[in-house]
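for the writeup, i need someone to sanity check this before i put it in the appendix. the sequnce is what the collaborator sent (i think, or maybe the updated version? ugh). structure was predicted straight from it, no edits. if anything looks off just tell me and ill rerun, i have time this weekend
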Amino acid sequence: QVQFVESGGGLVQAGGSLTVSCTVSGRLSWPFFMGWHRQAPGKERELVAWITTSGTTNYEDPVKGRFTVSRDNAKATVSLQMNNLKPEDTAVYYCNRHPPLPTWGQGTQVTVSS
């Protein structure tokens, strides 16, 4: 089994920045591709960015140019730096393997006020 623990969420004003982090633990062989997802109230969970084991990154259009995903394989951590945040970025943010495993962490709430 593998566990994902997200942290670093909070309340930020529009235009501000925030970094959320993810710690990976468990028996699944590390490193592996990782993704960041988010789920806004009343909406489906969606992928926002993913990163390969060597650090190549990919972003979905709504966050491209504003979000940056990075990883530290030695520490089994993955981070998502979010700049120029918008109210529509408000969501619970989750990390998972990419493509995702059935098990999800608790997520971390990011709220962007206008």
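The longest strand covers residues 18-26. The radius of gyration is 13 Å.
thx in advance!!
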